[in-house]
Specification:
five-stranded mixed β-sheet, alpha+beta, 157 residues
Length: 157
């Protein structure tokens, strides 16, 4: 894994909104960059749609260029975690393809875990799609364990 010496993990700022929106669209393509930008603007202005704490961390590689991001918040519970305590939850985690395998995802995750500890959490949880084997391998390489596998169904009435 190549080392990126100038990587700086920091909280996202409103000026990051356009880059973040494009990365969100790459991670969650069901919404456009414009839709993501509207939601991000609220979060970055301190007006999130959720009442629980949520932060967005970014990997700044210099000149305010972003290589990735990670959204982490608090949940009252998560599968496989102690139900008596809130848990840090990785809502989204993305590193641009040209920056992958350089330790950036690891640094983002470590910063998210530090934030969760600062919120009184003793556990952090995450999820990924069942067919996203790369994400599964990365989670497991960074110490996360599988606690459940589930297939969700729906029926339109």
């Amino acid at each position: 894994m190549a080392y990126v010496p100038d990587i700086f993990i920091r909280r996202a700022q409103l000026s990051d909104c356009d880059q973040l929106a494009r990365m969100c669209e790459a991670l969650w393509p069901d919404a456009s960059a414009e839709q993501h930008a509207r939601e991000l603007a609220l979060i970055l202005e301190g007006k999130p749609v959720t009442t629980l704490p949520l932060i967005i961390l970014v990997a700044d590689v210099g000149d305010r260029m972003l290589a990735g991001f990670l959204e982490v918040d608090l949940r009252s519970h998560a599968d496989g975690c102690n139900p008596s305590r809130p848990v840090g939850y990785i809502e989204g985690w993305y590193v641009a393809e040209s920056y992958r395998t350089r330790g950036i995802g690891r640094k983002l995750l470590a910063a998210a875990e530090d934030w969760a500890r600062s919120q009184g959490c003793i556990e952090v949880a995450s999820d990924t799609w069942i067919d996203n084997e790369v994400s599964q391998r990365v989670h497991e390489a960074l110490g996360y364990e599988v606690v459940d596998r589930c297939v969700h169904y729906r029926k339109t009435l």
